[in-house]
Fold Nuclear receptor subfamily 1, group I, member 2.
Amino acid sequence: VIMSDAAVEQRRALIKKKREIRKETQLCTAEEPTLTLEQESIICELLQAQKDHFDLSFSGSKAFRPMNRKSEHICSSTPLSSPKDESQDKGVTTSLNQLSCPCLGDKEDQMQYRSKPTVFSMLPHIADLSTYMIQQIINFAKVLSFFKGLMIEDQISLLKGATFEICQIRFNMLFNDKKGTWECGPLTYHMDDAAHAGFQQHLLDPLQKFHYTLRSLKLHDVEYVLMQAISLFSPDRPGITHHEIIDKYQEMFAMILKSYINTKRSSSDHSLLFPKIIACLTELRTMNEEYTRQVLQIQDIQPDVTPLMMEVFSNNPE
């Protein structure tokens, strides 16, 4: 049977339409994206490390030096730490010293500063809070299999570089964006507390904006902990010697984060979430240097910054 040209064209169109329908059906019935077993295992390790080394109840806050929110308060010198706090500081410092971190100067240098008056009323308390967070971050990193395999010098450099950033990521998990406060177990903080500890507005303003921005993303715990891992394994920190292996780890954590978002978030949620998270990490990085500068400036005025804080921030190369 010889078909007319019109019939041939009609048949071709019908075949083409059937192929398109079959292709669409295959796409619709395709399996949803899933995380690999290795990726799931890494996520479990990170979550367990955070569970073990992030005290959401802030049970250790009883040892903090008391709050004093009177900005005009000036008093006679208080010791760098009370006998109770001193043992706490010693334990915290030991955690970092186990990574062969250089110690503070001798006790005579510390005693020389203790004679200065207190002008930043919240500094002693905020210093103890920061030290408590730093201790937990050190312990968090030290149980990660990828971190344990690194050279000790690189471990120290990674911790020094990432401590401020990981602290802020963790604090964001406690941030109440309706009240503008951080709810840390029995303690509640607001941005004025940081100002009363000596920190200046050109750090505090972008930091507050960061917390509102990150909190608005409504991240899952997995996304928060992967942010911490990406920050920790930054190959361009000062003092890093094995850049390639650390860069490989950071890329791996970034890909797990992207896969998790694609897998666990709806299509309307995940299209821009990953770049927004990366933008928040970049913003944190820009604040890191200014934070270190202000910590050292505060310490020169009022030496209530704890030994562990000084170990972390005083030796960062310019």
About this structure: The domain at 36-63+118-311 is CATH 1.10.565.10 (Retinoid X Receptor). The first strand starts at residue 175 and ends at 176.
